[in-house]
């Protein structure tokens, strides 16, 4: 195929060139009807490019094939059999993949317990039974690593009737699983592997980045192009290969969840990103990796800041690491990541990706350069000085690896949709949670509906919320009360 082409971008240019007009949505009519105060902030271009996908950009039967051509080009560029574009984030793509593999099967789905909240939402919507794979725990750093092939094999031995497995790799921290090993374990049983690769859109385009799921033999993987690529927010692609997952079933499952009004700009940016990466991605990502190596070394010189690298790798830890994710352990400063992020936002107008009680994460992109990196280093240096005068952060009661693994009592769907009640934290242990509770970011639920709460997790969430942890999906974000099955 001609990778120099970008069918969706070209179609949009043609739409403008031919002065097309539609008596159809969107009602703003390419900005004519938009409020001038909106135009003053957003500009005219986003409205101009916001056109109807079929019956606008393409004809009513999509006979131009712009979307399908762009998807084929994407699949070829990354070595997949097929690719589907989605404008609803990996949150949708991962649910579609889960439903395609496990929907309607009683055996359930093997899932790593460090899955994102969108996976838990998929369990609630589909009624699929989770069969959790225990992640690997670094108890000292209070950090989980993706499961090993041996742990996935153990899960298959425990639940041989599960319809497939889903793992997250890279994690939001950039740590990666041994995907080739896990794919082999699954394929030895003739079962498919889904990889939630939301943080890995860039992986196919540079050999010094961790292995791309399709190269490792996964059957389906989903990527958020807006995270590590140049897509707009919500731009996601799911890739498919082999014959263990039916492409028609996958696209039907996606269709159940998808909007009927996809944003053409989101589609076009996916198309543009693919062409950019094919033509220049290797150089751009190579430069980004060099810049990241440099900034990692410089940040490490800041007193009491440890940039995590080899510490994250090993047999009982992660298999590989995306070094564009600069994860800093700041425990030695005696302050928390929450305090650090808040301080830099307020005093340096700089936002970092994630924080927790002892870490901060700066996510580098191929779009960063010397100037942005200087700004990061300068802000971190100023924070370090200021942090000497921070009040000690409120302590968080951290559960042990055993305590944080709650028992699943009933199906997430039954817990979520059944009768519920709120109980005070002191009375929550022993009750079955009716909602997910997710420290965000990174969005890995501490509690999944259907799990039996215990005191250690309740105390963790309650003390965490008091120390600055955000719990956006809990009915009570202060964790003083918990929603449980009545
Ligand atoms: C591991 C993982 N999977 C899925 C998602 C959902 O992706 P999106 O924001 O594109 O919907 C996220 C988002 O942070 C994530 O971290």
Automatic annotation (TrEMBL):
UniProt domain Orn/Lys/Arg decarboxylases family 1 pyridoxal-P attachment site: residue ranges: 7-308
Matches recorded under SUPFAM superfamilies: Ornithine decarboxylase C-terminal domain (SSF55904), PLP-dependent transferases (SSF53383)
UniProt cross-references to Pfam families, sorted A to Z: OKR_DC_1, OKR_DC_1_C
Cofactor(s) of this protein: pyridoxal 5'-phosphate
Signal peptide annotation: none
UniProt keyword list: Decarboxylase, Lyase, Pyridoxal phosphate
One annotated GO molecular function: carboxy-lyase activity
Domain Orn/Lys/Arg decarboxylase C-terminal: 418-472
PANTHER family according to UniProt: ARGININE DECARBOXYLASE
Family the entry assigns: Belongs to the Orn/Lys/Arg decarboxylase class-I family.
Name of the molecule in the record: Arginine decarboxylase
Organism of derivation: Mycolicibacterium litorale
Taxonomic classification: Bacteria, Bacillati, Actinomycetota, Actinomycetes, Mycobacteriales
């Amino acid at each position: 195929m001609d990778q120099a082409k970008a069918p969706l971008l070209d179609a949009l240019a043609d739409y403008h060139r031919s002065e097309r007009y539609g008596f159809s949505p969107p009602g703003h009519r390419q900005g004519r009807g938009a409020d001038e105060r909106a135009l003053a902030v957003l500009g005219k271009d986003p409205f101009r490019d916001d056109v109807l996908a079929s019956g606008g950009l393409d004809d009513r039967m999509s006979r131009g094939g712009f979307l399908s051509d762009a998807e084929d080009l994407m699949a070829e560029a990354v070595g997949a059999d097929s690719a589907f574009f989605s404008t609803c984030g990996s949150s949708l793509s991962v649910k579609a993949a889960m439903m395609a593999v496990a929907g309607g099967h009683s055996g359930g789905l093997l899932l790593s317990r460090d899955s994102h909240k969108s996976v838990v939402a998929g369990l609630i919507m589909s009624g699929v039974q989770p069969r959790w794979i225990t992640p690997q725990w670094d108890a000292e750093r209070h950090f989980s690593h993706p499961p090993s092939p041996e742990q996935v094999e153990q899960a298959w031995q425990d639940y041989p009737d599960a319809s497939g497995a889903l793992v997250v790799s890279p994690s939001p921290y950039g740590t990666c699983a041994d995907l080739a090993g896990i794919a082999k374990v699954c394929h030895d049983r003739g079962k498919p592997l889904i990889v939630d690769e939301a943080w890995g859109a860039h992986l196919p385009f540079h050999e010094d980045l961790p292995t791309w799921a399709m190269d490792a033999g996964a059957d389906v993987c989903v990527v958020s192009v807006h995270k590590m690529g140049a897509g707009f927010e919500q731009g996601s692609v799911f890739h498919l290969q082999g014959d263990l997952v039916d492409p028609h079933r996958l696209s039907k499952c996606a269709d159940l969840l998808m909007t009927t009004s996809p944003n053409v700009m989101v589609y076009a940016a996916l198309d543009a990103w693919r062409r950019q990466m094919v033509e220049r991605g290797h150089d751009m990502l190579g430069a980004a990796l060099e810049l990241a190596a440099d900034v990692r070394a410089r940040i490490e010189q800041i007193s009491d800041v440890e940039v995590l690298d080899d510490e994250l790798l090993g047999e009982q830890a992660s298999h590989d690491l995306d070094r564009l994710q600069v994860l800093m352990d700041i425990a030695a400063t005696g302050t928390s990541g929450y305090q650090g992020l808040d301080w830099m936002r307020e005093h340096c107008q700089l936002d970092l990706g994630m924080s927790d009680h002892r870490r901060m994460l700066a996510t580098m992109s191929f779009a960063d350069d010397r100037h942005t990196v200087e700004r990061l280093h300068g802000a971190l240096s100023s924070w370090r000085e200021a942090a000497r005068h921070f009040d000690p952060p409120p302590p968080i009661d951290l559960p042990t690896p055993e305590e944080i693994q709650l028992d699943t009592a009933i199906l997430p769907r039954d817990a979520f949709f059944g009768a519920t009640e709120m109980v005070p934290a002191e009375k929550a242990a022993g009750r079955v949670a009716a909602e997910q509770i997710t420290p965000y970011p990174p969005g890995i639920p501490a509690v999944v509906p259907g799990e039996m709460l215990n005191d250690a997790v309740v105390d963790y969430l309650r003390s965490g919320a008091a120390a600055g942890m955000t719990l956006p999906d809990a009915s009570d974000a202060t964790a003083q009360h918990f929603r449980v099955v009545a």
